[in-house]
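Customer escalation, tier 2.

The customer says the design service returned an amino acid string that "doesn't look like it belongs to this structure." They asked us to rerun it and document both sides in this ticket. The original structure tokens are below, unchanged.
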């Protein structure tokens, strides 16, 4: 009886030491605390504890970069800006490029160092340049989280260094990354494997991409790693094959090798079972719209996003429907909405939609323009 008790106790003790593993009908096996696999259009293909609040370490920088690109798009800053590194920025610990206090750096290079080697010092320098202080910038990060409808995210800093009330979840990280990769400039940085960061003094800091999958997984072209003892090993990454792009996130993997393997496994599952068909891209050519009372008679039209049908292989077909104004009254501003494009399934249900907008502005004719037209007609 005593021997039986000891055997049962030993088995129970062994079970308690085994890392919990999640498996599902997809065949995926996950040992990370959280995981999610998402299509480019936001469809969840696989998830495991994907909305639990946890520290995400340097994956926080995905939001830092997203807010920086938002500021660029808004015209508040430019990639060519000269940024003075404060003493606070230069004194940051953890991953860094060792900025010199009071030295001037090009904003584009600072952003690249954040993407490639997760530079904490560059994060602080960029945050201060955009918002005047890190604290104000972090407020913007939290505002952006609300705007995106994130369900379990709050920021206390722009680096991901440990903070008591800073947290996110795998699903929210996937949404953040999906928005970040809408900025084409991001990929010019994310694909860098090794590069020198040159300081104004001529000193050089070598950078190596922390996301090993950009070199070792076919199709992976972006992502962000993270590690602290609290968050454990984290990775958010995106990969594209053909027209199909997916995003995979793991939070709290037991070691670095596991985070790369489990993201790779999710990618493999996605590309083996799903496909995308792009019906409209931002550069797709569409019919022009007549402009009434404009200095130009027509205005070009573009989609304000991609229109993609995503589904299981062989099931991603859809009907493209274009609803475009026949004419519009001047003046027209670039980006003014002129119509809508929709994808519908076989039953007529709308499965995706994007706006159709003016490619450029068209000024209204002046009295003198009308006089010139009359003279030309004679």
């Amino acid at each position: 009886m005593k021997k039986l008790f000891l055997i049962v106790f030993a088995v129970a003790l062994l079970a308690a030491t085994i890392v919990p593993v999640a498996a599902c009908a997809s065949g995926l096996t996950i040992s990370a605390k959280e995981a999610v696999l998402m299509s480019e259009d936001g469809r969840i293909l696989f998830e495991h504890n994907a909305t639990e609040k946890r520290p995400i370490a340097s994956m926080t920088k995905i939001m830092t970069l997203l807010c920086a690109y938002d500021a660029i798009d808004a015209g508040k800053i430019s990639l060519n800006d000269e940024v003075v590194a404060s003493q606070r920025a230069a004194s940051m610990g953890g991953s860094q490029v060792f900025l010199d206090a009071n030295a001037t750096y090009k904003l584009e290079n600072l952003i690249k160092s954040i993407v490639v080697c997760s530079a904490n010092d560059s994060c602080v320098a960029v945050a201060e340049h955009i918002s005047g202080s890190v604290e104000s910038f972090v407020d913007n990060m939290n505002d952006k989280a609300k705007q995106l409808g994130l369900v379990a995210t709050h920021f206390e800093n722009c680096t991901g260094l440990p903070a008591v009330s800073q947290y996110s979840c795998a699903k929210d990280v996937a949404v953040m990354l999906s928005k970040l990769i809408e900025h084409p400039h991001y990929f010019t940085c994310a694909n860098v494997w090794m590069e020198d960061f040159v300081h104004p003094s001529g000193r050089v800091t070598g950078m190596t991409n922390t996301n090993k999958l950009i070199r070792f997984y076919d199709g992976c072209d972006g992502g962000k790693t993270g590690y602290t003892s609290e968050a454990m090993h984290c990775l958010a990454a995106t990969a594209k094959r053909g027209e199909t792009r997916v995003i995979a996130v793991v939070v709290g993997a037991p070691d670095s090798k596991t985070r790369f393997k489990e993201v790779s496994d999710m990618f493999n599952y996605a590309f083996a079972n799903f496909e995308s068909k792009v019906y409209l891209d931002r550069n797709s050519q569409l019919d022009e719209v007549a402009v009434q009372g404009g200095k130009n008679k027509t205005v070009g039209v573009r989609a304000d996003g991609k229109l993609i049908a995503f589904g299981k292989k062989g099931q991603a077909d859809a009907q493209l429907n274009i609803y475009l104004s026949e004419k519009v009254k001047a003046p027209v501003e670039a980006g003014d909405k002129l119509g809508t494009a929709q994808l519908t399934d076989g039953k007529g249900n709308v499965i995706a939609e994007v706006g159709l907008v003016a490619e450029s502005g068209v000024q209204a004719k002046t009295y003198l323009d009308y006089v010139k037209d009359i003279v030309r007609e004679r």
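Tier 2 assessment: The sequence is consistent with the input. The longest helix spans residues 256-273. The two ends are 114 Å apart (CA to CA). Sent an explanation to the customer and offered a walkthrough call.
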